[in-house]
Amino acid sequence: MQRLVNMVSASGVTAEMWIGLTRTGPPAWLWSVGETQISDGVVEYTNWGSLPSSTDNCGGMRDDGKWFSAPCTTTLPYVCQDIGSSGLYVVFQGTSWLYAQQNCRMNNKDLASARSQVENLALQQIINSAALSSVWIGLFRDDWKWSDQSDSSFRYWASGQPNYDGLCTLYNPSLKGFMDRGCTYSLPFICYEETKHTRTVKVEFKSSLNLNDFSVSDAILQQIQSKYQNAKVRWRVQPDGKIFHKEEEKEIKDAC
Fold first, then answer.
1. Residue 178 has pLDDT above 70, yes or no
2. What are the distances in angstroms from CA 136 to CA 58, 127, 198?
3. pTM for this one?
4. Strand-pair partners of 22
């Protein structure tokens, strides 16, 4: 988002302008925090207590760690998470999901996510320590897609948006947020070009620390990222929700 704000500010354009987010479906469950060290924002690891309702578009977590869906206007306490770290913060005041998201973001945080079994357990523990039965987390469902076909769940709607009066999205510089609008309006637009090359690298560490702890894996990732500033580095999450696995010591036998 900051990149978009800086680009628009540098251009000197103050008018609303088109961006590449369109309502083209199908609906999918996403994480509010958007792109992270392990995800584009699409929900892959799941822990639903029961199948989410087709009419509910926001999600929370119960004190047993199970997820639930609910109308986004439901009033619940919520959990914020520091951007790029494992810090979790409970807000006891009950609000709607959208207000909870906006309040987290005002403080350089976002609604908490649980993208693996490890993160889910950490979130459950803080809910239990706060003696709460259920909270909002960063789960939401929508049918908006980026025109470059990326899976990024990044959304930065202005207050009261989207109000579903159109299938296309504009950026409003004065509000510093997204608004939906009918696609036939004539507006300036923003283009970008990005060349992607993907490479998978296996890394090995010798450490007594729990490398699957988010704060530890994030610190390692930041060190790697600092050495490759022109590349985007991300961990690959294994099917069991973990990033690292301890290799079994190999038995060395003397050749006979």
1. yes
2. 8, 11, 34
3. 0.69
4. 145, 168
